[in-house]
Write a structure and sequence with these properties.
Layout lengths: L1 H42 L1 H7 L2 H22 L2 H10 L4 H30 L7 H23 L3 H25 L4 H23 L12 H11 L2 H13 L1 H9 L1 H10 L3 H21 L6 H34 L11 H24 L4 H24 L2 H21 L10 H18 L4 H18 L1 H27 L1
Length: 494
């Protein structure tokens, strides 16, 4: 009996290690490509803030968030349905039908968008109208190609495409702004070039166009995909309201210059958001694959508590060095952006928790459940922004987002219990939330000595709460280096 228990324990431990290793591997793969593209906005801050005005950055930020809301509308969020159903099929024929159906919806949406855009131009004057249109079209297509790569589990190709997108964007912006004396238009042209490069790379590696068979389109399959993705559309719209509608409210009450300042302040939390987006891609795949397992609750609990500790501790590490880093890389005319970062960091953390729980809707294929929580978050964010912005100025946008995401996460904790049950480590949660509050208070003291002390303390706190993660990561890197070293020695011996 004792031997049986030991064998069972080893078996369970092996499953856990395999799951965690797979999640770590996918996170590392996605990190290679996605983190670089998310980090790009941070890298370009010195260039943008030096050569572009506050008004320029404010206008670009408005275009960026407007495109972000147009894309889900014209595509009906079909990419999410395509990805979910591609994960469930092992048949090349079925995969081709799923991709073809998704392309059908996307192409139709883009055609309708072009017609409506042409009509709008007859009544409105939109600066850089055609670059904006091409920026939207190429962004939709690059997103489609990338999602196909993910659905086919070609994660390496997906990640490399992210590296290409980043490299092309960086080089294009530097060349166009520094050597061709372009201003705002350079940002649109650079994104267009990067999106086209992404499509070309993925196509050369996966040959997606060869999988299309327009004569084998299945109307029932299109309806099935649409039935899955359609409920995600209002969720995406509400998610956009929670995340970005504050730009419009800032622009209305305070003007484009204020929006430019706020756009710069969001770049620093984007460092944390970059990791979140990478982890979410890997977690989404693991959560879907493990959804039918008997011990999914234990697995989900373990992963969330890891994630929760990492999020808060990362915020504690970043806060003390943010203002110092901003003085180094941001032009003096944008330096006031440091004031709005703390609440944006906290909002990013709560947004990460909310998206973690949101995998329950995708895993269960019950996407209607995502709607109510996102509506609540969107409504709270709009109301708080409208009430607080005339009183608090730009700070209202940061505070409102934090409160909206926190509320959305709390609602999802209760709503997703029918999908899974996560036991949150409340002791760690309350301890880290208290520390975060203390750090945010000291942040506004604007004292270098205090910042240095907090930075040193935060490193210790990070290790204390994430010791097992640090040890595992160090061991993983050590084994990888040892393996590569062995291969090199063997090659030299031969």
């Amino acid at each position: 009996m004792k031997q049986y228990r030991m064998d069972a324990f080893r078996h369970i431990k092996g499953i856990w290690m395999s799951r965690e290793k797979n999640l770590l591997k996918n996170t590392a793969i996605f990190m290679i490509g996605n983190f670089s593209s998310r980090f790009m906005g941070f890298l370009l801050l010195p260039l943008f803030t030096h050569y572009l005005t506050k008004s320029d950055l404010g206008y670009y930020d408005l275009v960026f968030v407007t495109v972000a809301i147009i894309i889900p509308v014209i595509t009906l969020q079909i990419n999410d349905a395509m990805y979910r159903y591609l994960l469930d099929t092992d048949s090349d024929v079925d995969a081709g039908r799923i991709i073809t159906s998704s392309f059908t919806v996307t192409v139709a949406g883009l055609a309708a968008c072009c017609v409506l855009f042409a009509v709008a131009l007859r009544f409105m004057n939109i600066p850089f109208s055609y670059p904006i249109l091409f920026y939207l079209i190429t962004l939709v297509l690059s997103g489609l190609w990338q999602q196909v790569a993910r659905g086919l589990k070609r994660n390496v190709a997906y990640s490399v495409s992210g590296i290409i997108f980043t490299a092309v964007t960086l080089i294009s912006n530097i060349v166009l702004i520094l050597f061709m004396d372009m201003k705002l238009e350079a940002l649109f042209y650079s994104n267009i070039a990067a999106s086209v490069s992404t499509v070309v790379y993925i196509e050369l590696n996966i040959h997606i166009l060869r999988k299309l068979n327009w004569s084998d389109r299945k109307p029932k399959l299109v309806k099935k995909l649409a039935a899955y993705s359609a409920p995600l559309l209002p969720n995406a719209l509400n998610w956009w309201v929670v995340s970005t509608c504050n730009r419009y409210i800032i622009n209305y009450f305070l003007g484009n210059d204020a929006n430019g300042i706020f756009a710069v302040s969001t770049k620093f939390p984007s460092l944390l958001m970059a990791f979140n987006s990478v982890f979410y891609l890997a977690w989404q795949e693991s959560a879907i694959e493990e959804y039918e397992s008997k011990d999914k609750n234990e697995f989900y609990t373990r992963m969330f508590n890891f994630y929760m500790k990492f999020q808060f501790c990362s915020m504690l590490v970043l806060l003390p060095v943010t203002r110092w880093g901003m003085t180094l890389i941001v032009d003096k005319s944008f330096i006031d952006a440091w004031r709005y970062v703390p609440f944006l960091y906290a909002g990013t953390v709560f947004m990460a928790f909310s998206t973690f729980y949101g995998t329950g809707y995708l895993s269960s294929k019950d996407t209607r459940g995502a709607f109510t929580t996102s509506v609540a978050g969107a409504g709270a964010n709009v109301l708080l922004n409208l009430v607080l912005t005339p009183v608090m100025g730009i700070q209202a946008a940061a505070l409102s987002s934090m409160l909206a995401f926190a509320g959305m996460w709390i609602l999802r904790i209760f709503q997703t219990r029918k999908y899974f049950s996560i036991r949150i480590d409340l002791r760690s949660l309350f301890a880290l939330m208290t520390l975060s509050g203390i750090y945010m208070v000291f942040y506004y003291f604007n004292n270098l000595i205090i910042d240095v002390i907090l930075a040193i303390v935060s490193i210790g706190v990070f290790y204390l709460f994430n010791r097992s993660l640090v040890v595992k990561a160090a061991g993983y890197i050590k084994n990888m280096l040892a393996s590569n070293s062995f291969k090199i020695r063997r090659a030299e011996g031969e």
